[in-house]
C-alpha cells in the first residue's frame, strides 16, 4: 500500500499531513497542530452519482463470527444476519458512494470488509485485524 499523504508535511510544524474529506470540501490537515487547507473539491464521493451494491466479505472471519458482527453493526436480528450471509445477498443496494464509505467505516470497526460493485473508486476503511 502506498500512502501519498506522507509526501506532504505541515508548513507550520513539519508533521505529516493527512487528507480529509467533508461533504464537498476536501483538503489536507496536520496530524499535530491546527493547520489545515481545504478547497471545494468536486472529485469527491459526494459528487459520485454511481449507485453501488455492497456485500460483506471477511475472509478472516468464520461464518458464525461474521453473522454475529454483522448483526451488531447493522442492528439486525441474528436470524436476519444469518440469512444475509448464507444467501450471499448484498447488505446494501443502490447506495450512494458517501453512504458506502459510511457503511464501510461502521463495518470496519467490527472487523468486516466489504465488496463493492461496480468498482469503487474511493478509499475504503480497512478493518483492523487483531495481531495473531
Ligand atoms: Zn502542523
Overall description:
The protein is α+β, with helices and mostly antiparallel strands and 132 residues long. It folds into 2 domains: 4-44, no CATH class; 48-117, Ribosomal Protein L30, Chain: A, CATH 3.30.1390. It is built from 3 helices and 6 strands, in the order ββββααβαβ. It has helices at residues 63-74, 78-87, 97-109, and strands at 17-22, 25-30, 36-40, 51-57, 92-96, 113-117. The strands form 2 sheets. The protein has a 3-stranded antiparallel β-sheet with strand order 1-2-3, with no helix packed on it. A 3-stranded antiparallel β-sheet has the order 5-4-6, covered by helices on one side. The longest helix has 13 residues, at 97-109. It is elongated. The structure holds zinc ion. Zinc ion (ZN) binds at residues 10, 12-13, 15, 30, 32-33, 35.
Unreliably modeled segments: 1-6
The CATH superfamily title of the largest domain: Ribosomal protein L7/L12, C-terminal domain/Adaptor protein ClpS
The chain-level mean pLDDT equals 84
CATH C-level label of the largest domain:
Alpha Beta
Amino acid at each position: 500500500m502506498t500512502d501519498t499523504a506522507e509526501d506532504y508535511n505541515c508548513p507550520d510544524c513539519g508533521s505529516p499531513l493527512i487528507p480529509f474529506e467533508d461533504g464537498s470540501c476536501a483538503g489536507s490537515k496536520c496530524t499535530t497542530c491546527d493547520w489545515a487547507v481545504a478547497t471545494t473539491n468536486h472529485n469527491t464521493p459526494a459528487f459520485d452519482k454511481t449507485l453501488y451494491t455492497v456485500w460483506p466479505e471477511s475472509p478472516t472471519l468464520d461464518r458464525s463470527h461474521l453473522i454475529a458482527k454483522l448483526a451488531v453493526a447493522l442492528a439486525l436480528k441474528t436470524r436476519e444476519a444469518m440469512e444475509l450471509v448464507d444467501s450471499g445477498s448484498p447488505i446494501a443496494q443502490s447506495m450512494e458512494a458517501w453512504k458506502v464509505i459510511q457503511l464501510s467505516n461502521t463495518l470496519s470497526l467490527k472487523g468486516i470488509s466489504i465488496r463493492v460493485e461496480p468498482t469503487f473508486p474511493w478509499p475504503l476503511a480497512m478493518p483492523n485485524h487483531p495481531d495473531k
